Every structure is written in structure tokens, then in C-alpha cells.
Automatic annotation (TrEMBL), chain A:
Residues of the ABC transporter domain: 6-229
One GO term describing the cellular component: plasma membrane
Keyword Cell membrane listed: yes
Name this polypeptide is given: ABC transporter
Automatic annotation (TrEMBL), chain B:
Pfam families to which the protein is assigned, alphabetical: FtsX, MacB_PCD
Residue ranges of domain MacB-like periplasmic core in the record: 27-234
Main location class: membrane
Entry protein name: Drug:proton antiporter
Domain ABC3 transporter permease C-terminal: 268-380, 726-834
Compartment(s) of residence: Cell membrane
Keyword annotations: Cell membrane, Membrane, Transmembrane, Transmembrane helix
Spans traversing the lipid bilayer: 264-288, 309-338, 358-379, 400-423, 429-451, 487-506, 713-743, 764-790, 810-830
Length: 231, 845
């Protein structure tokens, strides 16, 4: 068996909310092997997005160790995390999160530009073509439909050829048909780059396409997860 | 009016949400109104002060001035019959002579000879403390004299010392601390000496042919109509040369100056209000943007466009009134609190108090400005449809507005400019200024749009690929219409005013302080007697440091008639007709003189008197060759024909006379000479000592000192205007801060995405700073152009001097523009930089 690409040991996440300190994630232990596709499911508020944010270094664990590709994310500062992300990670969100003042092409090229790649725009164009948007490269987010925006977001995640792909309900804001298209593109993307994928989803049929499903409940990994996936 | 009631109800509910989004709105409005109100309060205070002290400054309720003579007994009798009280003053320049240890010392002084009635109003304060009557009374048969301490010091006098004026001996009894009629300055050539007129009888100083002025100061009953009195006096003294003044305008020059300066400052204040208007409009706009869903919901519940419009105009109107009220309170309090400082710095009396007039004026300006800048965004609420609820758009309240609102805005604008023109009394200047502000506004608006388009284009070109920080900064400028517009207009307008002030100030100083001394003489010498002229010329010729000496005979005369018609009826109140003018005569034209039309007289011409007149002034007064002028010289009327016009350059401080006549016309009249001495600066002190010891009666005025005094006055004006411009800039700064604050949310979001995509904080910071710097640079560059243009227009058309671009303040302004925008930008970069991406993105899910 290959070494885990993601390894969480006894991770806790607590945040200060309006009603005092809340423990959002408790004693999370999780290994993900390279090339694996893991589905994260659970009721709303169970901590799925929070866990994904931790994996992406967008959130800091309160306790425990978060290792990704042999890096201890808990020991890296903000800027190191940013550089790490643009080198190894692609992240897709439910609300697309494109930069409104940039065209589709600029949005996609940005991570490559940030790491100083000279062929950023060529690769961005190719990636947009791969999601079927080669005719809309100059459009701004406000000029595109939700599905198109999410395709741009996918292209942006893919363009760095990420080792680790993180997706948080990428179809949550889309209708069924568009959602299915996005999912196909996502899995296609994973296959093209041989990436490891962690996917948060509510949809049962998507969970079935994963190698393994992990269920969260009240900030903890539910023990019956594996069994459920096997059903 | 149920619509109104409904609207009021909704408005009240919405307003209870607090003023958070309106801090910039209130600050902009309050600041503009406060500046204008404060200027108005100070101006009204000075006017009131001058009016209150008018009679004292003048020395009576009214004054009739005669030149070189006393009133005839019948004239005097008539004045006594007309007024409650009459005081007779004679004023002339003389030398105060002191004999001490066999040596004679002289000092130039301006003598005021007074009667028992002087002063009608106020008191002359003396040291030691005594009444003027006692001080001037005979002491053992010798009359008393009181003298300005400056002169007493210079001559080394002490109380009890004997001095002479002409042939009359006096004894110094006291020093003058203050005299009520000297308050408004009066640029006499020497320090003051006061004596009793009757004591001068034996002095030989007030005889025929000597130069003196008399003034009859009248005290009249409270209900006396001064205008009627003036008419009566002018009829009675229909002979030449009387001058009338009355307490309504005790210091006409001063109050006119104050009027103009404050009118000008109000214009600067209005610019501030225009800058503030940008902030006001932006605040209203973003408030209404946030209310789009509320408006759409109200619409879907059945509220019509009118109700919505009323709802928001009531809210904004209430807030505007609140802002204006704050401004009025500040504008009234600041001058009151600063009264001691202001009064100490003013050369004139001021009675600063809260007066309704200036406050009303400022409030009106505030209301109009608030309306002009809020109608547009308010009218857009009419465009919001219920469907905005179901679309994922930020706007809804955008697009074009109905023509009626455009017309209303235009009408309000005209009302504002009209009001400013009427209230300032400077109609042409106001219209020009309004045109300039409006022009600058439009230029900046167009420039902002252009910059936005260009940036958008530029961000998409291949040039910036691979430089994501620069590219995304440029792209952001192209993408955020509101921010780009607000920053460029508010900063641009503020910097333009500052740039214009900088250019004007520098050019003015330059004209006076730099250009002038290169050609200006060292000394201007007056009172040279006929028999002294050759001696002085000889003395100066022997001094190698003297490069040139020019002299001209000089008399003083008043132009009374033009073509046998009273001069004022022909040429109005042109300055050449105000009081007496220097007149010269000359056989040949000066070597630098350029005759522009007509011909100079033959050198030995002895026929009927002829005049050569200054071209520019002649044109202003509407004079033509062949016109005759009647000039009263020492009480004698001389009528002469204008036979030539010539260029007279006053700017070089050389000898320049408006009027020159042929020698035969004037030679017989008693006169003196004036001279200009050109010499090395280092030798100036010695030259003065030489002249003063050889010819003690002569007065030499050091040109450098005169220039320094003028520069001082100019510096004061420039400072006042700069303060006004700074108020504009501060308003601009508030708008900038407001804009940056409004953009913070968007930047936090953008920062989070950039971090997610792998941008380190430094790159994000540079990105934000670049945007600000670029906008600041643009505003600064436009401001330089606008400022130079305005500076050129003012120096060329208003001040009539050459214009050169002053680069230092210009670059300073660009640098300042960049600095200010970058600093305000960075002020609001902290949160975007420090926020955790997870939190920000989660909030947007
Ligand atoms: N900034 C925060 N401060 C306090 N509590 C927070 C914060 N962010 C999230 N939470 C809480 O943490 C818990 C987990 O949130 P999270 O978004 O990870 O859940 P989720 O499983 O992704 O839910 P959903 O399926 O609705 O997206 C929730 O109870 C949420 O209210
Ligand atoms: Mg979630």
C-alpha cells in the first residue's frame, strides 16, 4: 500500500462564535492514499466544509496534526500555505468564488501566473477548452451562468495539475443536469491528472462513485462510514 | 397624502437602523457647510466691526477733504450750520527738527494739525496719561506736541525736549499710543505728529503754495440722511477737488478688500462642497444598492415608484438636514472660539458674532448641493423592479433616469450658481469659477471612465501576462466603476484647487520677488526741491556704486473734467480719477517711451497746454486724441488737450506717470522732483546716509522694503486661500476614506480568493497599493493640468502678469495624490490581509 497523501491525527477545530466557543471538529483521524477518491457526507452543520478547509490550509486546526504531501500544514505560515496550495492543490467551492474583476481566462491563469509560469495563459486556454468554454474565455463572471462559472472554477482548479483536489458541494448551487455535467468534468479532471480527490456531497449517487465514503456527525467521523459505503 | 404618510412611516422605520453608512455623507456635507459658514461669519464680523468703528476711523460721521487750502469763511460757516459739530484737520508731511549740542537732526513726519473739537469720536491715548488738549496747550508760552514713539526713539527725544516744525518751536509733552482715526492704517510716509493748528500760524508751513490737505469732519444728528447731506455738500462745494467720505464706509479700501477675499474664499468653499458632493452621491448610491432587495420587496408588495422615491428622499433629506445642521454649528462655533486669534491678526476692527445671514447662506448652499448630488441616485430607485429579488444582481438601482430628474438637477445647479453669483457680488468671477468647477468635474468624470475602459483593455492584453499582481490591479480599476469614479473625482477636484492655488501663488510671488528687483531701482526719492536736484545728481554721480539716476518733476493734481463734463460722468469711478495723481512735464519723451498714437510736442513748444496720456488707462477710460482734460493743480484749473498716447510700464517700479504735459504748462507752478536711484544692493545703506546728511528734508523709500511689505500682504492672502483649498482637500480625503471603506468588503473577498489560489500576502498588498497609486497618479496628473490651466487663466486675465508653470508644487501634488490614496487604501488593507480565507469564503456560500 502506498503512503498516505493526507494524514490527520487527532485534529480538533474550535471557533469562537457568538454563543461562545464551539467545537466544530473533534478527534479527527483520517488517512487518504494517493489516487484515492474520498466522499465526505453528513448532515448539514456536521463539519464537512470545515474539514475540507483544514485540508486546504484555509483553516487552522486548533489541535492535532494535518499532514499533506509530507508537509505539516499546522507548522506553515499563511504565505507558505498559499505557495503550497498553488503548487499542489485545486479547490472547488459551492459558490464558485471567481474574482469578479477578471475574465474567465484571467481567473484560470492566475494560479500559474502567481507561481511564475510563463505559459500560464496557454495552459489556461487549454484547460478552458477541456471544460468546453473555449469560446467564452473573455467573459466576466457576471456575464456567465452558474454552470459556466463552475466550469471556469474547475478549470482553475485543474490548471495547476494538482496532486490533491478538494471539492465542496460543487453542484450545490446548480440544477440537476448542469450538476451532472460538472461532476463528470470533475471526475474526468481527477483521471487526467491522476489526482487524489476529496469531495463533499449530499448526493447519494455521487458518493457511490467514490472509493470510500466518510460520514461526519457532530464534528466526528462516524464509525459505520465504511460499512455504509459498502452497501 | 396617504402616499406621503406611508413613505414617512417606512422611512422612519428604516432610519432607526442607524447612521452607520452615512458617516461620510454627514461629514462631507457638514465640512463644506462649516467652511462656508465660517468664512461668512468672519466676513460679517469684519463688516460689522468696520461699521461700528466707521465713525471713529473716519473721525466723524462724515468728512469733507480739501486739497492745499482751508475752507473759506463762508464755506466754513455753511458747514457749521449744517452739522452739529465741525472739526478741522490739516495734514501734511514735514521734517521734525531737533537742535542738540550744536548739531541739527531731522526726521520725516506726517503732521496732523487739529482744533479743540478733535477727535469727535474716540480718544487719543497718550503716555504719560493726559488729555490731548492739555498736551497741546502752551507750556510757558511754547505750544505742546505729541509724537509717535517710533520717531521719538529715532531722534532720541524725551518728554520736555524742544523740537521745531518749520519756524515754530514746540515742546514734546507726550507720546501717541493710539489715535482713533489712525486705526485703518493709512500708509502715511512718516510717523505721526499731532499739534494744534493755531500753533502753526508762525511756522510758515500752511501758507499758499505749500502742500497740505484739510479735512472737515462733521458730527451730524442721528437721523441725518447721509446721502442727502453728501448731495448738499457736493452742490455747495461744486468747485474742484473735494472728496467726501462718511461713516457708512469709513475704510472703503479695507472693506472692499475683505469683501473680495471672502467672496473668493466662498468660491473655494463651494469647490469643497462639490468634492463633498461626490462623497454624498457615493454614500447615497451604496445605501440604495444595499436596499435593492428591500425596494424590490416593497414593490412586490404593491408600493408604487412614487412611494419608494418619497421614502428614500425623506430619509436622505432628513440626514442632509442633520449634516447641514452639524456644519452650521461647527461653522458658527469655530470663528467664535478663534475670535481672539482672528482679531489679533486682522489689521481692522472685527465684531465676530453668530449672525443669521451667513448661516442662512451656508445652509442654502448645503441644501442645494445635497439635492444636486442625491437626486440622481434617488431617481434610480424608480428603476428597481420586483424581479430584482429573483435575479442575482448587485444592482437593480441603475440605468438611466427620467428627463424630469435631469432637468431638476440642472435647475438646482443653476440656482446654486446664481445664488453664489448674487451673494458674492462677483458675477463674472463666480460664473468663471462655476464653469471651471463644472468643467473639471466633467473632465474628471470622462477621465475616470476612460481610465476604467483603458484599464480593462490593458488587463486583457498580452503585455501584462505573467505579472499577475499588476494585471489584477489594473483589472480591478477597470472593473469597479464606482470606486474609480469616486476616487478620481474627489481627489482630482481637491488636488486641482490646491494646484491652482500653488501655481497662482508662485507666479505672483515670482512676478514681485524675482522679476522685479532685476530692473527695479534701489531707492525711490521724493520731495527734492528745485534747487537741490543738481546737487543730488552730482553727489550720486560721484558714487561708483550708482548705476543710474532718473528724475522727473512732479506735481499733484486732480482730473476734474473730461471735455468740460465732470470726469466721473465720463469715466465712472476709474482709479485714475480717485483723488490726486502725480503729474510730470517734459520737453522730450523719455528714451524708453513708446508713443502709440498722436505726436509728442516740440521741445520748445509754448502754446496751449498739451497732454500725453497712458495708453492702457486712456482706453479703459474711453479717452481719445483731441479730448481735453481739466486738471486742478494747487487750486488752479489747467485745461489741456490730449495730443498723444504712450506706453507706461508700472511693473518695473521706475518712474511712470499717467499724465505728462509740456513744460510751459506747469513749470511756473510750485513743484518738487522725484528720482529713482539704481545701485548695487551692498551700497544702498551708504547712499541713504549720504543723501540724508546732505539733504535732510528728502524722503528716500527703499524699494526692497516696499516689496517686502507687499509680499507680506500677499503671503497672508495666499495663506487664507490655501486654508480654503485645504478644506477642499480634507473633504476629498473623507470621500477617499469613505470609498476605501465601501470597497473593503469586496477586497476582503478578493483577498480570500487570491490566498486560496496561492497568492502570498505581500502580493495582495502590492496589488491593493498599486490600484490606489494608479488612481492617485491619474487624479494628480489631471489636477496638474486643471491647476495649470486655472493658474494661467487667473494670472493672465485677472492679474495681468506672465505665467510660467511651477514644477515643484505640481510634482508635489502628484506625489501627494499618490500618497494620500495609497495611505487610505492601506488603511483598509489590514482586514483583507489578515482575514482567514475559510471564514470569508464560508460567509459567501
Ligand atoms: N466562523 C464560525 N464561527 C462559529 N461557528 C462556525 C463558524 N463556521 C462554521 N461554524 C459552525 O461549524 C459547524 C460546521 O460547519 P460546516 O460549514 O463545516 O458544516 P457543513 O457540514 O459543511 O454544513 P453544510 O452541509 O450545511 O454545508 C456548523 O455548526 C457551523 O455553524
Ligand atoms: Mg458545507
Amino acid at each position: 500500500m502506498t503512503a498516505p497523501i493526507v494524514s490527520l491525527t487527532d485534529v480538533n477545530l474550535s471557533l469562537d462564535g457568538n454563543a461562545g466557543r464551539i467545537d466544530i471538529l473533534k478527534h479527527i483521524a483520517l488517512d487518504v492514499t494517493a489516487g484515492e477518491t474520498v466522499g465526505l457526507i453528513g448532515p448539514s452543520g456536521s463539519g464537512k466544509s470545515s474539514l475540507l478547509m483544514l485540508l486546504g490550509g484555509l483553516e487552522r486546526a486548533t489541535a492535532g496534526q494535518v499532514r499533506v504531501l509530507d508537509h505539516d500544514l499546522t507548522k506553515m505560515d499563511e504565505d507558505a500555505l498559499a505557495r503550497f496550495r498553488r503548487q499542489y492543490m485545486g479547490i472547488v467551492f459551492q459558490s464558485f468564488h471567481l474574482i469578479p474583476t477578471m475574465s474567465a481566462l484571467e481567473n484560470v491563469a492566475l494560479p500559474l501566473e502567481l507561481s511564475g509560469q510563463s505559459d500560464a495563459f496557454e495552459r489556461a486556454e487549454a484547460e478552458l477548452a477541456a471544460v468546453g468554454l473555449d469560446h467564452r474565455t473573455g467573459h466576466y463572471p457576471s456575464q456567465m451562468s452558474g454552470g459556466e462559472q463552475q466550469r471556469v472554477a474547475l478549470a482553475r482548479a485543474a490548471v495547476v495539475r494538482p496532486a490533491l483536489l478538494l471539492a465542496d458541494e460543487p453542484t450545490g448551487n446548480l440544477d440537476e443536469t448542469t450538476g451532472a455535467l460538472i461532476m463528470d468534468l470533475l471526475f474526468d479532471l481527477r483521471d487526467r491528472h491522476g489526482a487524489t480527490l476529496v469531495l463533499v456531497t449530499h448526493a447519494r449517487n455521487l458518493a457511490e462513485r467514490c472509493d470510500r465514503v466518510i460520514r461526519l456527525r457532530d464534528g466526528m467521523i462516524a464509525p459505520e462510514a465504511a460499512a455504509e459505503a459498502a452497501e | 397624502m396617504s402616499t406621503l404618510r406611508m413613505a414617512a412611516k417606512i422611512a422612519r422605520r428604516e432610519l432607526t437602523g442607524g447612521l452607520k453608512g452615512f458617516r461620510v455623507f454627514l461629514a462631507c456635507l457638514a465640512l463644506g457647510v462649516a467652511a462656508i459658514a465660517a468664512i461668512g461669519i468672519v466676513r460679517a464680523g469684519i463688516e460689522a466691526g468696520l461699521e461700528r468703528e466707521g465713525a471713529a476711523i473716519l473721525g466723524g460721521d462724515a468728512a469733507v477733504q480739501l486739497t492745499y487750502r482751508f475752507a473759506e469763511p463762508d464755506e466754513r460757516q455753511w458747514l457749521e450750520d449744517t452739522a452739529v459739530q465741525v472739526s478741522e484737520i490739516a495734514d501734511f508731511r514735514s521734517m521734525l527738527v531737533v537742535d542738540r549740542d550744536g548739531q541739527t537732526e531731522r526726521g520725516l513726519t506726517q503732521v496732523k494739525a487739529v482744533d479743540d473739537a478733535y477727535p469727535i469720536y474716540g480718544t487719543v491715548r497718550l503716555t504719560p496719561d493726559m488729555t490731548l488738549q492739555d498736551a497741546l496747550a502752551n507750556q510757558d508760552g511754547i505750544p505742546g506736541v505729541v509724537i509717535d514713539p517710533v520717531l521719538v526713539d529715532r531722534l532720541g527725544l524725551s518728554i520736555g525736549d524742544a523740537v521745531r516744525l518749520g519756524l515754530q518751536e514746540f515742546v514734546l509733552t507726550a507720546l501717541i499710543d493710539s489715535a482713533p482715526d489712525e486705526a485703518a492704517g493709512g500708509f502715511g510716509l512718516g510717523p505721526r505728529t499731532i499739534v494744534a493748528t493755531e500753533a502753526l500760524e508762525a511756522s510758515g508751513l500752511l501758507g499758499a503754495g505749500t502742500l497740505f490737505e484739510t479735512e472737515y469732519r462733521l458730527k451730524v444728528s442721528e437721523d441725518q440722511d447721509l446721502t442727502a447731506l453728501r448731495t448738499a455738500v457736493e452742490e455747495r462745494f461744486s468747485d474742484a477737488g473735494i472728496r467726501w467720505r462718511d461713516r457708512r464706509n469709513g475704510a472703503p479700501g479695507v472693506s472692499e478688500f475683505v469683501d473680495r477675499l471672502s467672496a473668493f474664499l466662498v468660491l473655494v468653499g463651494l469647490t469643497g462642497l462639490a468634492v463633498g458632493g461626490v462623497g454624498v452621491a457615493a454614500a447615497v448610491r451604496s445605501y440604495l444598492d444595499e436596499k435593492t432587495t428591500v425596494i424590490a420587496t416593497l414593490r412586490s408588495l404593491g408600493a408604487d415608484a412614487r412611494t419608494i422615491f418619497l421614502t428614500y428622499i425623506l430619509q436622505i433629506g432628513a440626514l442632509a438636514l442633520f449634516g447641514i445642521a452639524i456644519g452650521l454649528v461647527l461653522g458658527a462655533l469655530i470663528p467664535i472660539l478663534l475670535t481672539p486669534t482672528i482679531e489679533a491678526r486682522l489689521p481692522v476692527p472685527a465684531a465676530i458674532a453668530i449672525r443669521p445671514g451667513p448661516l442662512l447662506e451656508a445652509g442654502l448652499y448645503g441644501l442645494l448641493a445635497a439635492a444636486i448630488f442625491t437626486i440622481w441616485p434617488l431617481a434610480r430607485t424608480e428603476n428597481v423592479r420586483p424581479s430584482a429579488l429573483f435575479r442575482d444582481t448587485t444592482g437593480g438601482a441603475d440605468g438611466s433616469i427620467r428627463p424630469i430628474w435631469i432637468l431638476t438637477t440642472g435647475a438646482l445647479l443653476i440656482a446654486l450658481v446664481g445664488l453664489a453669483a448674487i451673494l458674492s457680488g462677483l458675477i463674472t468671477l463666480t460664473l468663471w469659477a462655476a464653469g471651471a468647477i463644472l468643467g473639471a468635474f466633467i473632465v474628471l468624470l470622462v477621465a475616470a471612465d476612460l481610465i476604467r475602459r483603458l484599464s480593462k483593455r490593458l488587463s486583457q492584453t498580452k503585455t501584462l501576462r505573467g505579472a499577475p499582481t499588476v494585471r489584477s490591479a489594473v483589472g480591478a480599476i477597470g472593473g469597479q466603476a464606482g470606486e474609480t469614479k469616486s476616487v478620481i473625482i474627489s481627489l482630482g477636484l481637491g488636488l486641482s484647487v490646491l494646484a491652482a492655488v500653488g501655481q497662482i501663488d508662485w507666479n505672483l510671488r515670482n512676478a514681485i520677488a524675482q522679476d522685479l528687483p532685476e530692473v527695479a531701482p534701489s531707492y525711490f526719492v521724493v520731495d527734492i526741491q528745485n534747487d537741490q536736484l543738481d546737487g543730488i545728481r552730482g553727489l550720486l554721480a560721484a558714487n561708483p556704486a550708482v548705476t543710474d539716476v532718473q528724475s522727473a518733476p512732479m506735481l499733484r493734481g486732480v482730473i476734474t473734467m473730461i471735455n468740460d463734463t465732470p470726469a466721473e460722468e465720463v469715466a465712472g469711478d476709474h482709479w485714475v480719477l480717485q483723488g490726486d495723481r502725480g503729474i510730470t512735464y517734459s520737453a522730450l519723451p523719455n528714451e524708453n517711451t513708446k508713443i502709440t498714437s498722436g505726436a509728442w510736442w516740440e521741445a520748445d513748444y509754448t502754446g496751449p497746454p498739451q497732454i500725453s496720456f497712458a495708453t492702457e488707462e486712456a482706453m479703459e477710460m474711453g479717452l481719445a486724441l483731441g479730448d481735453t482734460l481739466t486738471i486742478n493743480v494747487l487750486g488752479r484749473d489747467i485745461t489741456a488737450e490730449i495730443t498723444s498716447f504712450r506706453e507706461v510700464d508700472f511693473s518695473t517700479a521706475g518712474i511712470g506717470f499717467i499724465l505728462s504735459m509740456n513744460p510751459a504748462a506747469l513749470q511756473g507752478a510750485p513743484h518738487t522732483h522725484i528720482a529713482t536711484i539704481y545701485a548695487d544692493e551692498a551700497a544702498e545703506g551708504q547712499i541713504l546716509r549720504d543723501i540724508a546728511s546732505a539733504y535732510p528734508n528728502i524722503t528716500a523709500i527703499r524699494v526692497r522694503d516696499a516689496i517686502a511689505r507687499v509680499s507680506e500682504v500677499l503671503a497672508g492672502i495666499a495663506a487664507a486661500v490655501t486654508y480654503g483649498a485645504l478644506a477642499t482637500l480634507i473633504t476629498g480625503g473623507i470621500v477617499l476614506i469613505g470609498t476605501a471603506a465601501a470597497g473593503e468588503r469586496a477586497r476582503i473577498y478578493e483577498g480570500a480568493i487570491l490566498k486560496t489560489l496561492g497568492a502570498p500576502r505581500r502580493a495582495i498588498l502590492i496589488n491593493f497599493a498599486l490600484r490606489s497609486a494608479f488612481l492617485g497618479l491619474t487624479a494628480g496628473i489631471i489636477a496638474i493640468f486643471a491647476g495649470v490651466l486655472a493658474g494661467w487663466a487667473v494670472t493672465t486675465f485677472v492679474m495681468d502678469t506672465d505665467f510660467r508653470v511651477e514644477p515643484v508644487s505640481a510634482f508635489g501634488i502628484v506625489a501627494g495624490g499618490i500618497l494620500v490614496t495609497v495611505l487610505t487604501g492601506l488603511l483598509f488593507a489590514w482586514r483583507p490581509l489578515s482575514a482567514r480565507p475559510a471564514q470569508v469564503l464560508r460567509a459567501r456560500e
